[in-house]
Amino acid sequence: MSRVLVIDDDPGTRSTLTATLRLAGYAVETAESGEAGLDLALAGVFDVILSDMRMPGISGIDVLRRLRERLVDTALIIMTGFGTIESAVEAMKLGAVDFVQKPFFAEELLLRVKAATERRQLARQVRLLEQRVSPADPLASLVGESEAMVRVRDLVCRAATVAGTVLITGETGTGKELVARAIHAESARAERPFVVFNCAAVSGQLLEQELFGHVRGAFPGATTDRAGLIEHVHLGTLCFDEISLLARESQARLLAVLESGLVRRIGENEGREIDVRFVAATNVDLRAAVEAGAFRQDLYYRLNAYHVHLPPLRERPGDVETLVNHFVRKYSPFDPREIADDAMRAMLDYHYPGNVRELEHVIQRALALAQGRPIQLADLPESVAASLAPDQRSTERGVAAARDRAERAMILGSLTSHHGDLTGVANELQVSRTTLWRLMRKHGIRVPD
Q1: What is the pLDDT of residues 352-378, one digit of tens each?
Q2: Is there a contact between 366 and 375 (Cβ–Cβ < 8 Å)?
Q3: What is the C-alpha to C-alpha distance for residues 195 and 81, in angstroms, rounded to an integer?
Q4: Closest to 375 in 3D by CA, of 348, 341, 401, 413
Q5: Residue 73 maps to which CATH number?
């Protein structure tokens, strides 16, 4: 049965859509706000998400953007009573599969949901075939030739061949989820589901429902039986991200599942047998959490059957240049970029409190600002550029150079705020369009399509 999430701040719309979709055979959950919908989407598995465009707080576009940032595998359809071509274009560019305007007929909506579900299933089958024909190296994402990273890749290969639980530790941004995915991809469960459950995203009864499911009548509103995420991942791998934030009562229930191999839905007396590989990730010292009484000692030892620790980037500085080149190739595969010497030195000298994730964002930003030319020191964030000693900076100094850098930054900023509208940029900068074109050519700024 396909699962659909409806996100809309209007109770009437939620009620109507729920009745229509359930009558058509879909399992439906609802959220009254973008924030609540995002939490559900990140914690659960949905084939289709129907989200209103305009809501208080997080909008439908924001929900779509954040889901794409987290690589959530779902088909999202935007709904709005304020439909415009611009809104449709923005939604589709961000990855929405469809765009419907309120009010709509039930038959039309069901056709769109069915089409989205079928496209998603087809895309999964294509990905699976591609992996079988030309399987990617799952360890390739764990970039680095330092002794620490060689050891990590070795641990991943070993962990993939054993059946026990795995505890992955490391600071935020070190790549714990990548390690979990690599362990799954290298294991015998590679063609089975891999799901990441963020323990910080939901809490309380909602968390229990998501993980363990429930039976009809277990609590008010439980009108049908529903399998939890643990059952959904049967024969696959379930990764608990930020496991330290799991509530104590939920820790006890998870421990029971690990020890018995049975999952009991809320309101059910008998357990159901499951075969799931459990992986847990945390940036917290769980030993200290155990001593402080914030985490169960028995669960800690149950999870820590196999341990993989990811070192922070500052402890493996020799990998920075390798990572820089890796991300440049990743985000500019058909247009290899050179990197100015002082820009590379600045990136090598920086300490990266956000670890590999921060370095990845630095490269993404630099490529966007460089607009096709070599990456310069001015294209890096100020915090990174400031790590370079003054005597190591480019010889291009002086008033003229400073003016050119400021001029270029001003044009890029205005282009961003005006979404590439050259007339708006020219008006803001108080120059003619001809002068603006000349300045853009001077600074190597690509003219927007």
Answers
A1: 999 999 999 999 999 988 876 889 988
A2: yes
A3: 34
A4: 341
A5: 3.40.50.2300
